[in-house]
């Protein structure tokens, strides 16, 4: 990693300074000013450029400049550029002056002051470009890494969420069901035996649910039916159940335990709060390009989604995770005494 | 001991009734399927004990209890309810988890028999007096947000009027109950509880100090340190009572 990083750095260095030298020679030829003095000067300039920018890079790395905030980074980069262009200019200028390279391409001699100033300006520009490339390169690398981290984190959260939601069976329900079964053992042994089978199915499916991201509606409905049969045992004539299932939709894939969550919610907020109980209706059908799953229950919606707690907000999250924007979920009062929770899944 | 079972599930009531057959001292006189029915049946049967489910349609068991003027002995029954369990643990109320373990039920009944003697005696007292007056040993159920208590009236040193509510002072607690001071005064035993002024009813047994106050009034200091002024008009009455 470090080695490939370093070789990439030297690649950039050589390419950059090479390009600088090549451009100089190209323009010298173009304007017919090419001579040996130019080459001698250029070689020294490039050597000094590579040397000082390498030192500058060490300074940047040692000071951990890239970890500071953006504003500080920009200010320090400009200051560094200024300091190092001063340093280079004060090395290059005496060399050029005393070795007789002070003649401009036009052939005129210049004073030391002028030479120093010209070198300062040109190296400042060069180092500014160098630093700009250095800065942008690291900025891109960093943000790409950040993006990758975010994606990995999201994927982790997604799988964790799915696991917790799937494993979620209300313990209140389990213990109430067991209590009901105990009473039925004397009263109606056959019903008690059936209830134990139903409860086993629910427990088993909640344990198995982690295996896949979706299940067929047929499998999901089996659990829901067992669940409702048990709730019917508890609520007796307070709970009425209706199914309106289009048989063609039974093969459709749905997120596991999602319909179950909606039904549980309908019982919790619709039936168990009402002294007279009510109706739960489960609908599965095609509408347009969507597979529509709906759970209706007697009762009134109170205070919007926030009031409905974990079950419904997790339904929305799960749909977003699995289908993105394409799936829809809403819960609303469809008439004075009926609440409907509806899921539209693209198919 | 007369008992009523209050639970919204018929099977749960049947199961508990069956378990209680083992305890001849507890006679289940009736059942109720929700809080309102429960309130009615408590009023008509005046039971010593109720078995009460927390989660019921309409009102919870806690809501029902706070509507009672005084509460019989209560054993809570619940399947699994994190919030209720927390309330129980904080306040050391007796509760049974459904399905009920017969041994736990036996323990709860045993505990009742040991502590409940006075309560039964009190009930006998009730019939001789107008049924509306609460004795010192009667308990009230007080709920203040998440916390709840059974409080014996003899432990209450002060009722303070706060708008439509009354603040109940006992121990280190002073929760609010939704009752007016006038309504409370009617129900409380006037041998024990005294209306000191427009805003306060004090427990005469829990007065620490009595000092003369300006304008011919009195200043009572209660066991909890509260200082209550007795209005001039009530001072006359107070002196009459105390001299007796």
The overall pLDDT of chain A, averaged over residues, is 85
Strand/helix succession of chain A: HHHHHHEHEEHEEHEE
Q: Given this structure, which CATH class of the largest domain in chain B is correct?
A: Alpha Beta
Q: Based on DSSP secondary structure assignment, what is the total number of beta strands of chain A?
A: 7
As laid out across the biggest beta sheet of chain A, the strand order is 2-4-5-7-6
Characterise this structure.
The complex is a heterodimer of chains A (347) and B (244). Chain A has helices at residues 2-30, 36-62, 70-98, 112-166, 171-187, 189-208, 217-235, 258-271, 310-323; strands at 215-216, 239-245, 253-254, 278-287, 290-298, 328-335, 338-346. Chain A has 347 residues and is of the alpha+beta class. Chain A has 2 domains: 2-159, no CATH class; 171-346, Histidine kinase-like ATPase, C-terminal domain (Heat Shock Protein 90, 2-Layer Sandwich), CATH 3.30.565.10. In chain A, the strands form 2 sheets. Chain A has a 5-stranded mixed sheet. In chain A, strands 1-3 form a two-stranded antiparallel sheet. Chain A is rod-shaped, with a radius of gyration of 37 Å. In chain A, 27% of the residues are buried. Chain B is α/β, with parallel strands linked by helices. Chain B folds into 2 domains: 2-128, Rossmann fold, CATH 3.40.50; 156-243, LytTr DNA-binding domain (OB fold (Dihydrolipoamide Acetyltransferase, E2P)). In chain B, 34% of the residues lie in helices and 29% in strands. In chain B, the strands form 4 sheets. Chain B has a 5-stranded parallel sheet, with helices on both faces. A 5-stranded antiparallel sheet of chain B has the order 10-9-8-12-11, with no helix packed on it. In chain B, strands 13-14-15 form a 3-stranded antiparallel sheet. Residues 117-131 of chain B have low confidence and may be disordered. The A-B interface holds A 171-172, 174-176, 178-180, 182-184, 186-187, 233-236, 272-275, 277 and B 8-12, 14-15, 18, 33-34, 36, 55, 57-58, 79-81, 97-100.
